[in-house]
Amino acid sequence: MRDTTPTIQSNGDRLRKLRLAKGWSRDQLAAAADGISIHTIQAYEQGRRGLENWHTITLLADALGCHPTQITGAPYPVAPSDRDGQVASSAMPALHRALLCHGRPGQITAAEADAVDLQVLAARVGKATELRQRAALARSGELLPQLVRDLQVAVAVLAAGPDRRAAYDLLASAYECVMQVAYKLGHISTATLATERVVWSALETGDPLRVMASRWYEAGEYIAVGEHQVAADIIDGALVELDEYGSRTPQAVSLRGAMHLKMALNAARAADRPQAEASWRSAMEVAEQLGEDRNDYQLMFGPTNTLIWGVTVPIEFGDGREAIKRAERVRIPKGYSKERAGHFHMDVGRAYFYAGNRDRALAAFLQAEQVAPQQTRMHPGVRETLTTMIRTARPGALHQLAVRAGVI
User: TPR repeat boundaries (predicted)?
Assistant: First the structure.
C-alpha cells in the first residue's frame, strides 16, 4: 500500500544531514557551536524542538562552515497551488540578471536613450515602492526587471549633474525593491547583490542622508550571517554621521530612529537582550519625538512600526508572553504598509506558539497570510513553526496552511 503520509522536512532534519555530511557526532557539533548543548542539538534533529531562533541558526551554520540558508532550506519550493508565488519565483532569474548589469547595461538603443524621462521614471519607481509596501511580490517581479534596465540606461546617458544624481536616487530605490523581493523569496545571494547595488547607487546621489540610509540595508547583510560586530560598527558609524550632519529634519530624525531599530535587531540576534531593549527604547524616544509614521528612504519609521519592532525583540528570545503583552499596544492604521502589518501578525503567531497557545498562533498566521500571502508562506520562522506544529496536530486548518506554504 502506498504511503501517503506527508513528507515534512524541518531545520533540524537539515541540520542532521549537514552534521553527518561533515562526519561529525553531536558531541563534536556541540563543542564547535559554543553554548549549544548536545541535548538541544538532539532535540532539534529529532523534531522535538523547533529550530527557528536566528542566533542559534547562525551559530550552528558558523560551526558547520555553511550558510544559514543551508539549515533553513531557502529558497523554498513554491506550492503548485500558489499561482502568485509561482509568478514571483519565476521572475528571479531576470531580476538577478538586471542586477549584474549595474554600470554595464549593454548596448543602449537610440530609442531607449530618447525615452529617458525622469518624471516618468519617478512615477514608475513610486509604483514599485507601493507594491513593495503591499508585499505584492508577483506584481513586483513582473515590473522590476524592465524598470531597473531603464534606470540603468538613464544613469548611463544623462550628463553628470543634478539629473544624473536624481536618476541614481531612483535606481537605489528600485534596487531596494529588488532586494526585498529576493529576500522574501529566500534568494539570499541575489538580495545581497541588490544591497551592494543600493550602496553603490546611493554614493552617486550626492545626498548624505541617502548614503546613510543605504547603511541600514548593508548592516542587515551582516546580521543575516551572524557578523554582529561588523553590523554594529556600520550602524554606530551611521549614527555618528547623523550627529555630525546636524540636521533635525523629519527625514534625518526618522533615519536615526530606524538605525536604533536595526541596532535592536542586531543585538537581539546576537543574544544581547539588555542592548536590544535599550536600542528599542531609544527608537521609541525618537518615534515619540517624530510624532508620525513616515516612510523616508522606504524605512517605515514612526510610532506604529517601532511598536511592531517591540514585539519582534522578545520573539528573538522566545519570550512569547512579553511579545503578546507588547502586541496589545499595536494598532495598525488604515492603509498602513501590508509588509509591516504582515510581519506583525507573523510575530504574534510565533509569540502565541512560544506561550503554548497553538490555536491563537494559527489564527495569527492565517491573518498574516491574508494580509501578505507570499511573504508569510516564505518566512523561515513561520515555516519552521508550522513544521513543529504540524508534526503533532490533527488535520484541519493548520494542514491547509502548511500545504499552501509548501511545508508539506
Answer: 342-375
Q: What is the pLDDT of residues 381-405, one digit of tens each?
A: 999 999 998 887 666 788 788 888 8
**Per-residue pLDDT reduced to its tens digit, 111-136:** 999 999 999 999 999 999 999 999 99
In a domain, 212, yes or no: no
0.90 exceeded by pTM: yes
User: CA–CA separation, 100 vs 316, rounded Å?
Assistant: 34
Classify 141 as helix, strand or coil. Answer: helix
Domain that includes residue 123, residue range: 76-206
Burial class, 4, CB count within 10 angstroms (exposed 0-12 / middle 13-18 / buried 19+): exposed
Note whether 364 and 384 are same-domain residues: yes
Predicted confidence at residue 1, as pLDDT, reads: 37
Instruction: Please name the residues in contact with 21: beta carbons below 8 A apart, sequence gap of 6 or more.
Output: none
The full 3-state SS of 266-281, as one line of letters, equals HHHHCCCHHHHHHHHH
